Amino acid sequence: MRLWLLRHGEAQAQAATDAERALTPRGCAEVTQVAVQLQGRPLTMLLVSPYVRTRQTAALVVEALGFAGPVQTVPWLTPDSDPLEVLRRLDRYDSGELLLVTHQPLVGALAGLLVHGHRQQPLAMHTASLAELEGDMLAAGIMDLLALVHPQ
């Protein structure tokens, strides 16, 4: 199982609500730059937070890759979601290559949980950072961090 974790690109500082913050032009460029890392990968599905900036990030990835597979918006990938709950929900996605498009602090905590088995060492995920994890199954402490790419 290969899991890709992508934090959204740089977003506007303010909007009516946090969920409505859109990507900035720089954020769009960051995502496009990092999406290159996913070219040629056999992604099976994209799971995306319902927030505007993550949906925009996913759309840029889909466009850059020509991805024709399923893109599913799920309410459990928001900034304050519980990594243990996310891990439980990911249990049904146990094969192939999956891309999650989400936020800090969730994405760093989830990566730390998957690699280290606890949340005391979250992975540093900047805007549009992409982490590649691999393991026999999606479970705490048994996945290996293969790569961590930050946009320049």
UniProtKB/TrEMBL annotation:
<dbReference type="InterPro" id="IPR029033">
    <property type="entry name" value="His_PPase_superfam"/>
</dbReference>
<dbReference type="Pfam" id="PF00300">
    <property type="entry name" value="His_Phos_1"/>
</dbReference>
<protein>
    <submittedName>
        <fullName>Phosphohistidine phosphatase SixA</fullName>
    </submittedName>
</protein>
<dbReference type="InterPro" id="IPR013078">
    <property type="entry name" value="His_Pase_superF_clade-1"/>
</dbReference>
<dbReference type="InterPro" id="IPR004449">
    <property type="entry name" value="SixA"/>
</dbReference>
